[in-house]
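Figure caption, in words: inputs first, then the predicted bound structure.
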Amino acid sequence: MNRRDALKLSAVGTTSLLLTQHPMANMLNLGPLTLREAFGRDFKFGVATAAYQIEGAWNLDGKGPSIWDTFSHKKGKILNGDNGDVSCDFYHNFSQDLALLQSMNMDVFRFSTAWSRIMPEGQGPLNIKGIDFYHRVIDRCLALSIEPWLTCYHWDLPQALQDEGGWFNRDSIAWFSDFVEVLAKYYGDKVKHWMVFNEPMAFTGLGYMSGGHAPGIRSFKQFKAAVHHVTVAQGEGGRILKELLPDAIVGTTFSCTAVEPKSNAPRHQKAAKKADALFNRLFIEPAMGMGYPTEDLSMIQGIERWVKDGDMERATFDFDFIGLQNYFRSVARFSFWPPVFWANLVKANKLTKEENITEMGWEVSPEGMYHVLKQFGEYGKRIIVTENGAAFEDHVEGNFVHDSRRLDFYKQYIGQVLRAKREGIPIDGYFAWTFLDNFEWAEGYHPRFGIVHVDFENQERLIKDSGLWFKEQLR
Ligand code: FCB
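Bound structure (beta-D-fucopyranose present):
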């Protein structure tokens, strides 16, 4: 099951929300204001990226292989047999790319560090050329007055660590802690904003339960162990950064989705509660000192087996902000047995309205963004929308890429962010996913998410209409 199947959970019987509203009804209405003026000068706009998706240079300058190198080189794992060996070749193009980003008036470049570029074996000796690469990226950002926001881990575990079990192995907590310490030591005097993980639910669920992502494991046992080790590592990572860099602003990011029951029948409502616990609460609540949502999520019962004394205290950390990443809403329906419940969520994705579905099969649901912002607002943390965006087919015409559906998507979703902010949810930033068209994991190069078009034949970049809109709005 790949992510196309596993995470396109939406759209059954498109609810009353969509039926009663014209699709454009919640479009951003700024009046005479620009985005900049409507959100205020302190609000940060930026783009989010991930190392494996853009860098290429998979085996250059001493980099060790990651689980994504291994996985994407296996037959049948990635759509069209694609891999990230070259991708946007950001490794060689970063200087021009960041200048392009600056020309679009963006405040923030969110990026991640490839662990195996810095520590080829995942632990032990450092690769100085890898360390230097991120210094050059960060220095370039600073020279262009772009804030570098660093994600410590965006899914590309060193293969050498996977050979020892990866996140299934409890030692992963220590491996990751050492890696975070290296990052803090080398980049801490330049980088002020840090995110420990990118979407722990996605990389544990897809990597260890459904197997659609690297390392491609399908095991409830491994999933539960991985969840626990990542949860402890999440708290430890935060603490290490704060201890070594007391002035740093430290967060972590979560995937989230507004969950609705298929109908009001109590069994579907129960399923929705379960799905909400799995997709929205599993990783934030232990960080908040609330423990696992075991009561609402029977499938993780038994996780205690992996919990040692003091673990839940180590998992707790007072993050300065949480990063929310939202793309679609989910519709849940009852099933008796956990794997069937998971499969049902997949089946629930009966596409009812083609015009409302992105190239990922994800439903466009701006209201869903509003609902998750309200829901996560309850935790009392400051919030950054660290990812949001859409893949649509693009039409290149000469020097223009007319991506009107993506532009509409941004206007609708940002409209809902503004609505939540105006209602008092403490939202401090919004980062578009993503800067450049790139390697979209199991979907390869097929879905294009960029606000900048990339011609993968010749590495040419072309700002799309959506990118030009941001540029104009952020002037
Ligand atoms: C998010 C991932 C990001 C990208 C977008 C489309 O879940 O964090 O890397 O794949 O989805």
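The first helix runs from residue 3 to 7.
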